[in-house]
Each structure stands twice: as structure tokens, then as C-alpha cells.
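Homework-ish question, so no full write-ups if that breaks the rules, but can someone show me the predicted structure for this set?
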Amino acid sequence: MTVAEVDPAVQDDDREVEELERVGAGSLAKRVLGVAVLGAALFSVSLASLAVGAKPIPLGSVIDAFLAYDPTDTDHLIVRELRLPRTIIGLIVGAALAVSGAVMQAVTRNPLAGPGLLGVNAGASFAVVLALWAFDINTTLGLVWFAFIGAGITSVVVYALGSIGRGGATPVRLALAGAALSALLFSLTRAVTLLDRATLDQFRFWAVGSLAGRDADIAGQLAPFIIVGLVVAVALSRPLNSLALGDDAARGLGVRVGLTRVVSGLAIVLLCGASVAAAGPIGFVGLVIPHAVRVWFGPDQRWLVVACGLAGPTLLLFCDVIGRIIARPGEVQVGIMTAAIGGPAFVILVRRLRVIRL
Amino acid sequence: MTATAPRPTATPERPEALPLRGRVVRTRRISTRVDVRSALVCIVLAVAIVGVGSWSIMVGDFPIAIGDVWRTIIGRGTDDSEFIVGTLRLPRVLTGILVGAALGMSGAVFQSLARNPLGSPDIVGFDSGAALGAVTMIVVVGGSSWEVAIGAVLGGIVTAILVYIFAYKQGLSAARLVLVGIGIGFATAAAVDYMITRADITDVQRAAVWLTGSLNGRGWEHVRTVGFALVVLAPLVIVAQRRLDRLELGDDTASALGVRVNSTKLMLVLVAVGLAALSVAAAGPIGFVAFVSGPIARRLTRSPGAAVVPAAFVGALVVVSADLVARRVLAPTELPVGVATAVMGAPYLIWLLTRSARAGSL
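A: Not a homework solution, just the prediction itself:
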């Protein structure tokens, strides 16, 4: 961590060092408190996500829907059949996006890296456009697998491109290869949508990212991928902490650098591939939540992964609930809401608190 | 180790970069250091630009022989070729060259300032702000193409100023600038998405073409706009090149070397935003040029710092070639140039990446 901060405030650097020490070592209580607060917030927004919508349902009925389920009660049906799958998808997608962002930023050592950087969003978008245009598939469940396969293939190609040549997959090469291939696929996507108006009309709704209209099937099929990805991400936090010191230092600490990068790539593909398949490309959560969380929890990857796993779904569900309220009886897609609410909030956070750099 | 990419100046694998490169040219009054390799790269790129540009003027629904193209340009063409070359194709090609140069230069400056190869005019929220301005004009106002251009420039500049204000706190740290830019960029992008999902599909299509970046129907007024920007702003960047290189060493080192860090950064951000602004006004946000030009130029020149001038040449070549491809690949349907820039630039960057000898160098 360099302390080379801004010019006119050398004393600023000292404060920053103090801050880092405070955040770094003796603040277990602070971090535990943070996890507790995030956990409570996640629980509340999950309840809200079950209760709020075009038809508001009192909390009592929501709880009854689980404890004393009555299939003839419309409220119970709405909660169990519509809002529960939606909430579950919000939970797993939010966790997957934020955690994969944390892994991606750690492995590339680049603060601009988000889940999209490995080409996941571009690959999924291109596959979805092909599905809409060439194969006339437009059910949500049909698009899911196209998105997932597109995301998977692209990230493997990005990784391969980043690894060719002397020196293997360095962070800079991965980042450049990912950005280059993403741009390539996005422009092919754009070419198709410009040539075919009907495809553009359908694609614009997929492309903003939404949790609406996802049923339990989708949640059931994609959850295993995300759970495996989350477990791998947690297991990776120690080697990634060492990798933050640089490749050579990490090697000196006994980390197998190449292996760590490959496994990280695998976790990112599972997490982002499944989440973009479930909810479309939601860029904000994966890029920004790790930064926001780092402000409170410091740069330790172990805490970061846990906190991202809680903060990601909290933000996603919160924004989804707000999106259902502000445009009643219609709704604003969650991809729009996360960026519209989260963007300004993130700016305030960055301004008020010290930015903990990678 | 900040969050930035490894700096070539600091990598031990490149001992040859440590001594000063190039030759010193002296006249009676001034002496300056000229980097031979960079100069050669620029000359080769310039030849390629002229070649591709002439080719682009030759082909189309009404093909014109290369001899006629040059005769027309020096003012001895027939009436037909005068109209097609002078009114339709030459201004389009020139706009492409100038826009590419402006974007390439702007991107190289931002990448260097942010010390991050993923840096782009979007770091200060410029592109997303411009998109918001333009899409508002198209969807809400239904404005003409000039109104759209003005909306884009205003939106971009207002957003960039906002980002700068929010990021400024006892000086300007690159990390904070980048993060604030991300936050505001997402918020403006959300507003664009909202309009795109709510608008009529005809407007959406128009917005999609604008957001892709297009050179269709560009005339001499566009050449003048971007040309003016380059004539005024490019020299400022070239003069500041050495200070930019020092800033790459870190703020503290740079100020120890006599660079006034904050005012230099502010000046460079303003100039780079200005370059991006006028090119966006002329041709929409042509994607990828700003991103790809810097790394390609650095690799071609093996420059240890930001290769600002070579980046401008690379950008021009990418845009001109991409426009040629976009016009001809599905002829007679003409695709917007922005569709093809990544197709032209990405494979080349990837190829450079795979064969670049020095691991970890930018």
C-alpha cells in the first residue's frame, strides 16, 4: 500500500497510515459489528422484498405463508410462488456479483476491474442477442442457458489470451485482454441490434438487468453454480491476500500464483456466469460493493468476501424493492435502480471516508 | 503498490528504458530530444493513414480511381468526382482521422493520469454524461443532429465538472477521481437505460446509432470543429508530455522533480476532456479508440511513458480503417463506424499482448 497520496497534504499521508493501522490490526470488534449490521439489514430487506410489490401484503401474512401455508389464500400464493423465487434470486445474484467483484479486483490488482472485465457480460450479451435474433428464443428460461454458456466460453478465451506469451497471465494482460475481447463482442452485439429492430426491442429490456418474472426453476438451476463459486471464493481469500503483495512476494510466501489465478477465474466464471444468466448484466454491484465494503472492513480479503456476500444482496434487494414502489403499478428494473441509488451513495462514501486502495 | 498497473519505469526487466532514449537535435536557439523509434512509428502510421484514407475515398456505390481522387483533391476533378469526393467522402474521411487522433490522444492522457490501462475519458464520467445529454435530446426533445451534439457536449462537460468537484478534497488523488467517476458514470448510465427502456423503438434505434458512434453524413463543418480542437489542444498535451511522464512516477516524486501536481493534472484533465468533447460532438462516442490507442502506441514505440503523439496516429488509423470496414462489409448497408472500431483494434491489441516480450510491462 503506497501512501503516495495528494501533494499539498503530507500530513494527510500520516493520517492515512494511522487509519490503515486502525482498520488493519486491532479492529475485530468493528468488523464483527459491521457483519452484524449487514446481516440485520439483509434480513430486513429480504422481508420487505416478500411484502412489497404491486399488491402490498402485511408482514403477518408473509410469515403465515411459511408457517401456516394455505394454498387457497392469494396472498400466500403471491408470496410463495412469485416473491420468494424473486427474493432468492436477488440474494444469490447479489452475493455472487459482489463476491466475484472482490475476487476479480484482488486477482487483477485493479480497482476498475469488475465481474464484467473477464468478458462475462459481453459474452452473455452476445449469446442472448444471437438467441433472440437467430434462434427466436425469447423465454427467460431459454435465454438463461445461452447467457451462461456465452459467459463461460468468453471468460475461458479471455483467460487463454491473457496467458499466452512469456510470463503467463499477468494482471495487466488479463485486464487488457478482457477489455479488448469485451469490446469486440459488444460491438458485434451492437451490429446485430442495429441491423434488426425486433432484436433491439427485446434486447434493451434484457440488457438493463431485472429480477422480474424469474421463477423457482431458474433459482433452482443456477443456485448450485453460485454456491460452489462462493465456497471457492472463500477458500481463495488467503492466497489472494498474499497475492496483493505482488507475485514475487506471494511466491515467497508459498502461494502458487498461477494456480490461484486459474481457480479465481473459475470462481468468477461460475459466479458471474450464473448471475448474468439469472438477472441480466448488472454492472454496478460487482464493481462498487467491494470498494464500499473496503472502506469499513479494510483490505483483508477474508473479511471482504464475507462482507460482500452480505452487502451485495442487501443493495440488490433494497433497490429492487424501491424499484417496485416508485413506479406503481409498474416497476423500474433493478439494474437501473442499483446504479441510480448506489452511484450517488458511493460518491458520498468515497468523499467522506478514506479510500482504501487495493 | 497502489491499485495501479505495474509501471514500466519501475520494472527491473527493462534496464534499456533507464537511460534517456533518442537523439538530441540542436539548432542555434533550441535543442530538443527526439525519439527516433517514435518518429519512425509516426511516419509509418501516417503513411498507412493516407493509404487507407485514399482507399476509403475510392470505394463506394460510385467507385473512383485513385488518380481521380488525387486530381480532385488538388482541384482538377470532374464535376461528378468533385461532388462525391469533395462533398461526401473527403470530409467524412478527414473527420474520421481527426476524431481518431483526438480520441487516441485523450485516452493516452487519461490512462497515464489514472496510471491504469483501463483509464478512459469515462473515468471523469465524460462519455456517460455525453450519452445522457444526447439520449435526452433524442428521446425527450426529439432534437436535430446539431441539438443532439450540443446536448452531448453539455452533458459530458457538466458531468466531468461534477466528477472533478466531488473528487477534489485537499488535492486530487487519482484513486478518488477514478472511484467518483465510476459512481457518477453508473448513475448517468442508469438514467440512459431508463430512457431506453421507456422510449419509442424508433427513438431507441436513433439513440443506438448515436451511442455507437457514426461518421455517416459528416461534412466540412465537422472537420472544422474537430480540427480546431486539435490545433488548439494537441500542442498543450505535447508540451505537457514530460510533466505527464513525471506524474507517472507518483505525485510525491513528481513534485520533487518540480512538477506542480494539482495544476498540471487539472490542465491535462481539461485538455483531454476538451479533445473527447469535440470528437464526441462530431461523431458520437466511438467506442474503444481511446482505450486501444495508448497501449498499442506504447508497445509499438516501446516508450516508457505515455506515447501521446503516436497514440493520436494509432487512433486516427483505427477510426479510418474501421469506417472503411463498416461501410463496405455489408454493402450497400452502411454500419456505424463504432461497430467496427473494436473489430479493428481488439485483435491487434490482443496480438501485441501475446507477443510482448516483457511480462507485466504496460
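Now go work out the reasoning yourself. Hint: Chain A is about 75% helix and 0% strand.
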